[in-house]
Amino acid sequence: MSDQTNGCRVWSGGRLVIASHNQGKVREIGALLAPFGADVVSAAALGLPEPEETGLTFAANALLKAHAAAAASGHPSLADDSGLSVAALEGAPGIYSARWAGPKKDFALAMHTIEEKMRGKTDRRASFHCALALAWPDGHAELVEGRIDGTLVWPPRGNQGFGYDPVFQADGHDLTFGEMAPDDKHAISHRAIAFRQLVARCFRTK
């Protein structure tokens, strides 16, 4: 369901597909959607294939995944493309953040890979980026982006969150994302920053 407000399409209830096979992302996005009465289902639960992420930006890949899920499911679909960019590695792993974890999604391996590449480097600045795309089966889509800056820590700290969370400490905070309670992370994360923009544009509280 949808209507139009100020040129932006507003999702107003019903089934909403989260276009992801990453259960950590599905849980986090589901928690953010809870106030809006969405009938949430993941692409994995629907048996939808994961499209090849051929985009060269987070935004391009988010749109690609959202459009693919909306077309395949016949329902509005929300896709996230996000990742970690490390200043001393010229922005890597960036859009390839998940690929650094390999086919087994081994983020412990990915974090070790980053730390190995950081040997001899003193600049430990990093940032998390998120693009969120909400697409409808008719091809319309809305796109927003969020970013949070911070520092890489080593060794990893905490077992909350997922992905690179245990090695990322946001500016102004003493805990890594891996140590933060979910609600605390949801209040400040790159995904939360993007989601607040999407809510302002496309959602109404129930």
Task: Spell out the key features of this protein.
single chain; 206 residues; alpha/beta; Maf protein; six-stranded mixed sheet; 8 strands
- Radius of gyration, in Å, reads 17 Å
Low-confidence stretches: none
Distance between the termini: 14 Å
Under CATH at level 1, the class stands as: Alpha Beta
Shape: globular
Helix fraction?
Answer: 25-40%
Structural class: alpha/beta
**Total separate domains:** 1
Strand numbers in spatial order across the main sheet: 4-3-5-6-7-8
Number of strands: 8
CATH architecture: Alpha-Beta Complex
The biggest beta sheet reads: 6 strands, mixed
Count of helix runs: 5
| Percentage of residues in strands | 25-35%
Short description:
The chain has 206 residues and is an alpha/beta fold. The chain is built from five helices and eight strands; from the N terminus they run βββαβαβαβββαα. The protein starts with a strand and ends with a helix.
Chart the SSEs and their pairings:
Blueprint: E1 2-5, E2 8-11, E3 15-18, H1 23-33, E4 39-42, H2 58-73, E5 77-86, H3 107-117, E6 125-135, E7 141-152, E8 168-170, H4 182-188, H5 190-202
Parallel strand pairs: 3-4, 3-5
Antiparallel strand pairs: 1-2, 5-6, 6-7, 7-8
Helix pairs in contact: 4-5
Descriptive overview:
The longest helix is centred in the N-terminal third of the chain and has 16 residues, at 58-73. The chain is globular and about 50 Å long. The strands form two sheets. A six-stranded mixed beta sheet has the order 4-3-5-6-7-8. Strands 1-2 form a two-stranded antiparallel ribbon. The protein has one domain (6-202): Maf protein (Alpha-Beta Complex). The model has no long low-confidence stretch (mean pLDDT 91). With 206 residues, the chain is of the alpha/beta class. The protein has five helices and eight strands, in the order βββαβαβαβββαα. Strand 1 (2-5) and strand 2 form a beta hairpin.
